[in-house]
Amino acid sequence: MAIATISPTTGKTLRTFNVLSSEELERKLQKAADTFRSYRETSFADRARWMRRAAEILEVEAERFGRMMTEEMGKPLEAAKAESSKSATACRYYVTRAEKLLRDTPIDVDGDTAFVRYQPLGPVLAIMPWNFPFWQVVRFAAPALMAGNVGLLKHASNVPQCAIALEEIFRTAGFPEGAFQSLFIETSEVNRVIEDPRVKAVTLTGSEGAGRAVGAAAGRAIKKVVLELGGSDPFIVMPSADLDKAVHTAVSARLINNGQSCIAAKRFIVAEPIAQEFERRFVERMKTMVVGDPMDPKTDVGPLATPGILEGLHAQVEESVKAGTRLLLGGKPQGGPGNFYPPTVLADPPPKAPAFHDELFGPVATLLRARDLEHAIELANATPFGLGASVWTQDANEQRRLIDGIEAGMVFVNALVASDARLPFGGVKHSGHGRELADLGIREFVNAKTVRITSASGAPPPSKHAGE
Ligand SMILES: O=CCCC(=O)O
């Protein structure tokens, strides 16, 4: 796919960009390695000052960055502006906590001095998606840079202006030239970068297929990798739930980001006694959602990011219906310019239908009925994915059982699954491994070095940095 801004609203190509030549890529990789040598020696105070400034830029320029995101990938403008401001929260989270989170951890071993020291790894390659083109990048970059690593960004080819803006933000904030660079390379070049000895680790947010390819390449090169992949998140509603609140949240959870979020609820598993009422209210509310120009403040659901995503989604809907799934709403692309797909509701898919086991990346909800709590958990776990789960019940025993029984990296009770700088984020099964954000996120790309000193004096040599 060419590196270009192609409006998902009109289908028009607005700007194209050249890929890096081999020599240009080589210069950038060398720059990353050279910068790392001096950058790792900078103090937490300096890094924090630059990161605080990055947060300010993200907030002050939220309108400009929001328009850029909406133009390139089609999310409603208000959500895009909010994404820029939310990215600032990740910067600030690590401004105030990085030093403490990376302080030596003392360990008591038979009277010896022992501790774990956290040291940066080096240049980290981040392969990032278009769906949250700022947030996904910043939530990698903020902890990685605060830990003393340098970043190399291979962004999705349909959000090049966002990639350029992110590099500018970190440079303008004061980070040294080369601490965060964007690489305009084809997907076919990614393996070369992963294999390059100057690159020390890889993080990917993307599809299951991309996860397999990147994970295999990182494995061959024996490099640390974090994979944040897809999800087919369940949204379980039990009879004691506040039905009104559950229905409202369910619709928002499905349509967030035009339905293109890894943690969007995709399968709504509702207990039999309330299933019919939930279905009626859910379909009614989905019908009221306004599809249109994402720059228009009245729009709830903008276009899908690319024609390919629209085609793939529609094929999954058609195949599900052919397999015996009930179609309750929508189900056909809108036609005309732009990649518009209406809010769509499917119900009772048989296990062979894509709506039962695959991730549907767009505004298509699947309703399933559960006989009881154990059946709800069985249905929730019946996909290869395990990212997030939203569960709705007032019953404490049911809450406990759901928290324990669901195979997922995150369970939210009576709430929408949402990322937050303070909470670890990631999945299990085919949703990937490793964690982003919070304390666990900053420890992914460090060498946790074990030190044991057996001596009469026992005093540890002082660290050059407070946190190392
Ligand atoms: O698409 C996955 C990430 C969504 C989020 O972090 O809110």
UniProtKB/TrEMBL annotation:
Recorded GO MF terms: aldehyde dehydrogenase [NAD(P)+] activity; succinate-semialdehyde dehydrogenase (NAD+) activity
Annotated ranges, domain Aldehyde dehydrogenase: 3-451
Pfam families (UniProt xref): Aldedh (PF00171)
Transmembrane annotation, as ranges: none
Keyword field: NADP, Oxidoreductase
UniProt keyword annotation of Glycoprotein present: no
InterPro entries noted in UniProt: Ald_DH/histidinol_DH, Ald_DH_C, Ald_DH_CS_CYS, Ald_DH_N, Aldehyde_DH_dom, ALDH_GabD1-like, GABD/Sad-like
Keyword Iron-sulfur attributed: no
Assigned protein family: Belongs to the aldehyde dehydrogenase family.
Protein name: NAD-dependent succinate-semialdehyde dehydrogenase
Organism of this sequence: Corallococcus interemptor
Organism placement in taxonomy: Bacteria, Pseudomonadati, Myxococcota, Myxococcia, Myxococcales
